[in-house]
Amino acid sequence: MKKQLLLLFISVLSINIHSQITFEKGYYINNSNQKIECLIKNKDSRNNPTTFDYRLSEEREEKVLTINDVKELGIYNIVKYIRFEGKIDKSSMIMSRMSNTKNPEFQKETLFLKVLIEGKASLYSYEEPNLLKFFYKNENSKISQLVFKNYMPVNNVIYKNERYKQQLLNDLKCGNITMNQIKNLEYEKNRLISFFKKYNNCNNSENITFEKKQKKDIVNLTLRPGFKNSSLKIENSNFRGLSLRDTDFDNELGFRLGLEVELIMPYNRNKWSLIIEPTYQYYKSEKEYSDRSVTKITVDYKSIGIPIGIRHYLFLNNNSKLFINGSAIFDLSSDSSIVFDLNGAATAEKLEIQARPNMAFGFGYKHHDKYSLELRYHTNRNVLNKYRPWNSKYSTLSLIFGYSLF
User: For the chain, how big is the Rg over CA atoms in Å?
Assistant: First the structure.
């Protein structure tokens, strides 16, 4: 049954994995300078596109436009791209492919540049795998690349061409920007954005940005009660085949209670988070025998599990999202044991429970960032880790409800 549920989980995930890609309100400007309002598929890719999918309305069919058809496109309050026809230096930052010459090696291309800042001075970026370049313009110039290049002429020694600093010094002069500030300016997105904002503010120019504001609450605290179905199987290699102490305990329905702390990663539209959830759980079961030297075996297992893992959200709309998560669980058992009542013996034999870490995988739904429901599968856990002849498989399937306190 648990294997079937795991297969169901994987199937549902594969079906819904594209649900995070949604059509959002936007526009594009064609080669005749006509602005067409439409819905654009937000793929949220780090790399700059060459094509995009759009619909003229929710009811209309999906179509594709290429970079040759579009001068500008945008998703309102999220992202904006403009077509650039000009020179770009794509010198690699990877040592094995690094150029041995200092000067940029320009090639003419047609690209979509992502707009980072618009104002008296504007900043753009172009990104593809293993490449990130920045472009700029002021009110009196055309768009051109801010030149930064690593090169390695001889003996595996890396040098830097930081011509972008001289470009900014020549073209973006203002009273509150010093030569020392430009000298220490790194070729990095946030640093360059801050610099361009400072220049525009100095010139009383508005800074227009296009990235959607990230969620301010970076920590969620969620109460997570739930039900679990657990089973336990124990085996002793010294008695294997004699069926003296190998036991399959029954599936038992129990209660679990967790308190989850979730740290939202402040990038990629809040799709990733780190989670930790101290959780109380218990399992009690027993088996009785009339034809064995062991007359009764009782398990009493109480513990605090500490799942530590990552979560990824798949957005359905502004109020609903699916999520998947994976965690490593570290188990802290307390006063837990497996007790063997021996036929004719005055005292029972007792094994203390000490569990090894295991993994858990969950799939769930969250509504209004407040209520959630998750199905979680736990891989087998060995709860008799301190006893070499013994092997055990403790498995659990949980249904977890969540209510976010903040």
Answer: 30
Q: Is the pLDDT of residue 113 over 90?
A: yes
Of 54-58, 177-181, 253-257, 348-352, minimum mean pLDDT range: 348-352
| Three-state secondary-structure class, residue 65 | strand
Yes or no: domain 219-404 corresponds to CATH 2.40.160.20:
yes
Q: Which residues are CB-contacts of 279 (< 8 A; sequence separation ≥ 6)?
A: 224, 256, 257, 258, 259, 304, 305, 306, 307
DSSP H/E element including 6: helix 2-16
**Pairing relationship of beta strands 70-75 and 79-89 according to DSSP bridges:** antiparallel
Domain residue spans of the chain: 18-76, 84-212, 219-404
Contacts of residue 300, defined as CB under 8 A and 6 or more positions apart, other chains included, come to 284, 335, 336, 337, 338, 339
Q: In the CATH hierarchy, which fold is given to the domain comprising 18-76? A: SH3 type barrels. (2.30.30)
Give the Cα separation of 406 and 384 in Å (integer).
38
- In sequence order, what are the beta bridge partners of 282? 302
Buried b / exposed e over 235-253, threshold 16 CB at 10 Å, is: bbeeeeeeeebebebeebe
Q: How far apart are CA 187 and CA 132, in angstroms?
A: 10
Number of H helices, E strands in the chain: 4, 24
> Tokens standing for 390?
């013994």
- Reported confidence tier of residue 133, pLDDT bands at 50, 70, 90: very high
CA–CA separation, 262 vs 279, rounded Å?
14
| Cα–Cα distance measured from residue 28 to residue 193, given in angstroms and rounded to the nearest whole number | 25
**Reduced to 3 states, what is the DSSP secondary structure of residue 76?**
coil
Is 301:336 a contact under the CB 8 Å cutoff? yes
Contact present, 77 and 269 (Cβ < 8 Å): no
pTM: 0.59
Task: Please state, rounded to an integer, the average pLDDT across all residues of the chain.
Answer: 86
| DSSP track, 130-143 | TEEEEEEEETTS--
Q: Is the pLDDT of residue 335 over 50?
A: yes
Band (73; pLDDT cuts 50, 70, 90) = very high
Indicate the pairing of strand 390-404 with strand 219-236. antiparallel
CA-CA-CA-CA torsion sign (239, 245, 249, 254)? negative
**Residue whose token pair is 């579009």:** 70
